[in-house]
Design goal:
The chain is mainly alpha-helical. The chain has a domain of 293 residues: Cytochrome p450. 57% of the residues lie in helices and 7% in strands. The chain has 19 helices and ten strands. Strands 1-6-3 form a three-stranded antiparallel β-sheet. A three-stranded antiparallel β-sheet has the order 2-10-7. A two-stranded antiparallel ribbon has the order 4-5. A hairpin with a 5-residue loop joins strand 8 and strand 9. Helix 6 packs antiparallel against helix 7 and helix 12 crosses helix 13. The radius of gyration is 30 Å and the shape is globular. It starts with a helix and ends with a strand. Bound molecules: protoporphyrin IX containing FE (HEM). Protoporphyrin IX containing FE binds next to helix 5, helix 12 and helix 19. This is Cytochrome P450. Its cofactor is heme. It holds the Pfam family p450.
Length: 504
């Protein structure tokens, strides 16, 4: 600037250099804006449109330019709407708001149709994975082995001693983690029912492996060391090895101990279908593994929620114990008068009195009318399986929309059970709502159709037995009654359900 003035051309020099500098600054700014503003924006636009182009483009071609798809967004490549799902389920703890937003977009359907959804294929030949005739065949094996009236009679005798003795042990601890303990007792029962395993090292290792497998069920399918999915696959292999060893040892000592064992593994090994065909070893193991996955977390969570709801609704616990005409405000002391029980109509104390120290049977449970209503209400509100998946087998019209073949559908079971149009005051725990049946199609805790849960009765009787022993002998209170619910991978209290637990 000073130099330019001396040369007598101060003004132009100044203007030129100023312009140049100005140009210099603006081009830097321009690059800066491009790199930090434009490029990310472009990437973002590409990412948000990628799925639309990838999935909807071919459909438009197939339908010559126009296809009326359900409204909604395909989300980001690969992740779909996973991030917003996680935001509502994991961070905000508001699953119903996420579901409600999806529902609003789809008018009254209550189903959310989306881009690919993620699922861990736990086993190749298990009942939960195969389709068509293979599914019907495997399902009948599994159903007969765990859910048929005969199987349940046997299972009653297996699970009761464990439930009853676990509760006695818990009472000695005074405070306990409800989630941890219900898992322990459920897994001990599973070990015994499925492969005649007693508590010990093998069962403990299996428990660890199944924790890993279950953790991976809803994880992203990224199979690299360090990911949840990779760990789940490794755990699955280790669990399979344990069952394979057991199966080989049974083959080696065939025919011995069958009477005493009478478990799922023997049931599956020996069962024949209508053509007299038996399951292969791989099928036996795959099915055991997938039955543990299906039955372990679900049953232990439902049992754990029993603690929660009965602590929050002591009048229900009172009614479970004795008839509802007793003084509700005096629930603890009224339990001491067990001698009155034979004069009482319902429910579990009277049953104990009648059984005179013997285990209850499947028939006894069917007589515990109020207990069965409590079971239904626990599983409705616990929403252990908040959604299920289906795949569209052929192009379908639904409410005026085209649902293309191969699209995956999420059915929000949770929404069915918490919708005020289906249940009066849906978030309140009210077993008496089961004095009559639910509206058709509104109670699908176990799913529906050909894929309905193959262990639904097994789950129900285990919860009923648990309620029976809780009601006749124990009292408890929640240490953190205001604890938050975590919704992933399954609904459970943030503190694991810390409780003070005592004998009556
Ligand atoms: C409270 C406990 C349980 C709940 C809430 C539950 C829920 C469900 C749901 C929602 C499905 C999917 C159904 C569908 O797609 O329509 C399912 C499937 C299944 N569940 Fe359960 N379940 C429970 C306990 C059990 C138990 C104890 C077992 C066995 C040990 C079991 C075995 C199965 C099997 C094998 C399937 C796959 C059925 C098939 O694809 O044919 N579940 N369960």
């Amino acid at each position: 600037m000073l130099m330019s003035f001396k040369e007598g051309k101060p003004r132009e020099q100044h203007t030129e250099s100023h312009r140049a500098r100005k140009m210099g600054i603006s081009s830097e700014t321009w690059w800066f804006a491009l790199v930090f503003g434009g490029a990310p924006l472009l990437v973002w636009v590409l990412l948000t449109w990628w799925n639309e182009i990838w999935y909807i483009g071919p459909l438009k071609l197939r339908y010559s330019g126009y296809v009326k798809l359900p409204p909604g967004t395909m989300g980001l490549p690969y992740f779909g709407e996973m991030l917003s799902f996680l935001w509502y389920f994991k961070i905000l703890h508001l699953p119903d708001e996420f579901i409600e937003a999806k529902k609003q977009r789809l008018a009254s359907s209550g189903h959310h149709l989306s881009s690919p959804v993620l699922r861990l294929r736990t086993s190749e030949s298990s009942v939960a994975v195969v389709n068509g005739k293979a599914h019907t065949r495997l399902r009948s094996y599994v159903f007969n082995a765990i859910n048929s009236p005969d199987a349940l009679k046997r299972i009653f005798l297996v699970v009761q001693p464990r439930i009853s003795s676990s509760l006695q042990l818990w009472a000695d601890k005074v405070t306990l983690n409800g989630m941890k303990e219900t898992k322990k007792v459920t897994f001990a029962n599973i070990g015994k029912m499925f492969a005649n395993f007693e508590p010990g090292l093998v069962l403990d290792s299996l428990d660890g492996y199944f924790a890993g497998i279950i953790g991976g069920v809803r994880a992203q399918r990224i199979n690299v060391p360090g990911t949840t999915y990779h760990h789940a696959l490794k755990c699955r292999k280790s669990a399979t090895d344990i069952f394979r060893k057991e199966l080989e040892s049974r083959r080696l000592h065939a025919k011995s101990h069958i009477e005493e064992r009478n478990d799922l593994m023997d049931g599956l090994i020996n069962m024949k279908d209508k053509q007299g065909k038996k399951l292969g070893d791989g099928e036996v193991i795959d099915n055991i593994v997938s039955l543990v996955i299906a039955g372990y977390e679900s049953t232990s969570l439902a049992s754990m929620w029993s603690f929660y709801y009965l602590a929050k609704f002591p009048d229900v616990l009172q009614k479970l114990r004795v008839s509802d005409n007793l003084d509700m405000n005096n629930s603890w002391s009224s339990l001491e008068c067990v001698s009155q029980c034979n004069s009482m109509q319902d429910e579990n104390l009277a049953m104990t009195h009648k059984k005179n120290g013997n285990f209850i049977t499947a028939k006894d449970i069917s007589e515990l009318k109020y207990t069965n209503k409590v079971v239904e209400e626990i599983i409705r509100l616990a929403n252990v399986a908040p959604f299920i998946f289906r795949i569209v087998k052929e192009d379908t019209e639904y409410q005026g929309f085209k649902i293309p073949k191969d699209w995956k559908i999420i059915i929000w079971l949770r929404h069915l059970h918490t919708d005020p149009r289906n249940y009066n005051d849906p978030m309140s725990f009210n077993p008496d709502r089961w004095n009559g049946p639910a509206k058709p199609g509104t109670f699908q805790v176990f799913g529906g159709g050909a894929r309905i849960c193959a262990g639904n009765m097994l789950a129900r009787v285990q919860i009923a037995i648990f309620l029976h022993y809780l009601a006749i002998g124990y009292k408890w209170e929640l240490i953190n009654p205001g604890t938050k619910t975590m919704y992933l991978p399954h609904p459970k209290p943030e503190d694991g359900l810390q409780i003070k637990f005592k004998r009556i």
